[in-house]
Amino acid sequence: MLRIEAAEIMIVRLPLKFRFETSFGVQTARTVPLLVLHGDGVQGVSEGTMEVAPMYREETLAGALDLLREVFLPRILGKTFANPEELNDALGAFRGNRMARAMVEMAAWDLWARMLNAPLGTLLGGRKTQVEVGVSLGIQADEAATVDAVRRHVEQGYRRIKLKIKPGWDEAPVRATREAFPDIRLTVDANSAYTLADSVRLRALDQYKMTYIEQPLAWDDLVDHATLQGRLQTPLCLDESIASAADARKALSIGAGGVINLKVARVGGHAEARRVHDVAQAFGAPVWCGGMLEGGVGRAHNIHLSTLPNFTLPGDTSSASRYWETDIINEPLEAVDGLMPVPQGPGIGVTLNRDFIESVAELTEERRP
Ligand code: OSB
Ligand code: MG
């Protein structure tokens, strides 16, 4: 039984080690919300991926905090559930806001797995003890800087390089990278920066033998992606557009793409992520685990989800030390030769660095029934 006795909300601001530029803007730090659920002497923890401004999808940090305090936590505090799925059902009537709901659901899974003394990945049905990872590289100043960044990460053993692109910065970095590295697994991510009017320009990318082109069109579109896919050879990979297993089923049935970037928070938590995974598998479409520049808590959740069998392409869950001088957890999460070990031990297998969190926290509060 899953008894929820108390909750803690914390917010920490973490400076990024690099400037991360995408088609929707430049990030130099992350504001990381954490949720801890307490029950029966055990605690489970999750990390939110919504940002202050709704640039990636529509959710915001302020909206998520308000929902946690006023709507979601009052539904679960002081209550007992049979398992994390039943707890999530208590939030099932609420529409959208999947990243906010995922904070509750993911903390419940960690709590549950710790109570059962099992690694989260095993409970989800995963079998791997390490997962293949690549890197997502932000937009660089020019071609030379792009090739330099690619070289550094290829040398570290990352198994796939993803370049962020935008209109006016697409074929040039891809061509330069492909000329320097004819054989690497290469992809691009447009974060919804194009429209169907750019079809010809996107078709020019077909010649570079990329594994997929990620989210070229609108964040809430499926239909135009299907039209675009009909004009391209390179498979499209959907990220922003997939918020549920139903979205995945619709996208794959109309041919809107052939690959899914599966982010556990974007789809509302582990149970829904597993359903997306299963739908994709039934369609013969590979999935891979995306990232949102997570701290150690979100990163550990991602690694555990990635142990499921249809995660057959390298994820974005690269080494924590790439991102942070000091992480919010005590354990290192470091890939070796492009393989990220799955933290063993119960739950997500990592523990909060409470001293560090307290020293940089912008908010800490406790909620009780
Ligand atoms: O589109 O996958 C994306 C980061 C923030 C928001 C959206 C995306 C990303 C990344 C970075 O690509 C992945 C990572 O290194 O965590
Ligand atoms: Mg993406």
Can you put this structure into words, describing what you see?
- This protein has helices at residues 61-76, 84-89, 98-115, 120-124, 143-155, 171-180, 199-203, 223-231, 245-253, 270-282, 296-305, 320-323, 354-360; strands at residues 2-3, 6-22, 25-39, 42-47, 80-81, 130-132, 135-137, 161-164, 186-189, 213-214, 236-238, 259-262, 287-289, 339-341, 361-367.
- It is an alpha/beta fold.
- Helix 5 crosses helix 6 (171-180).
- It starts with a strand and ends with a strand.
- Keywords: Lyase, Magnesium, Metal-binding.
- Its cofactor is a divalent metal cation.
- Its EC number is 4.2.1.113.
The residue ranges in which pLDDT falls below 50 over 5 or more consecutive positions are none
How far apart are the termini?
18 Å
Kindly name the structural category: alpha/beta
Strand neighbour order, sheet with most strands: 7-8-9-10-11-12-13
Structural domains: how many? 2
Largest sheet: 7 strands, parallel
Give the CATH H-level superfamily of the largest domain.
Enolase-like C-terminal domain
What is the number of strand segments?
Answer: 15
Named once each, the bound ligands are: 2-succinylbenzoate, magnesium ion
The helix content, as a percent range, equals 25-40%
Round the mean pLDDT to the nearest integer and report it: 98
Task: Indicate the CATH topology of the largest domain.
Answer: TIM Barrel
Radius of gyration: 20 Å
Shape: globular
Beta-strand percentage?
A: 15-25%
- Per CATH, the class of the largest domain reads Alpha Beta
Question: What's the helix-strand series?
Answer: EEEEHEHHHEEHEHEHEHEHEHEHHEHE
Q: Oligomer, anyone?
A: single chain
Protein name: o-succinylbenzoate synthase
Keywords: Lyase, Magnesium, Metal-binding
Enzyme class: lyase
Pfam family, one: MR_MLE_C
